[in-house]
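not sure who needs this but someone in the group chat was asking about Divergent PAP2 family protein from Bacillus salipaludis so here u go. i didnt clean anything up, its just raw.
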Amino acid sequence: MNKGVYLALFSIGLAQGLKIPIHYVKKKEWRPELFFQTGGMPSSHSAGVSTLTTYIALKRGLPTFDFALSLVYGLIVMYDAQGIRRQTGELTLKVNSMNDLIEKIHKEESLEFKQNTPKRLKEMLGHQPEEVVGGALLGVLIGIVGHLCTKNHRKPKKFTLRF
């Protein structure tokens, strides 16, 4: 794999890991399982695509096809993370609360009704806009640092002609 892929994957892992202490600071609740869940601050989706886009911009330049492709793909991912996936999470909250209401109704009925209890749907799917921005800023920072660390610092060799 190339360095851009390694940096993007590192960025995703770091963003996922940062969710645990950030959640602890906000809620005073230690939840290591957040590492394996979607949603929360910072967005690992945004961090990953921002790292890759920044690395490509610094390594290959802004007028390249690689950068254009990465930028457009990254914008779509970030839009999806804060838009569509967040709306899905909010809809899931409503569905889960309806399930609670249905259970209350069934308990008040005198008829026997047997139903398999459905699994509770996952409610934290998407991101708030500030979580996307936080992930994007983390990604840009890692992209810059990654580029600087992988930059070839060798001095050009001087060629001398010997006769």
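also The chain has two domains: 3-83+126-150, 88-123. if thats useful
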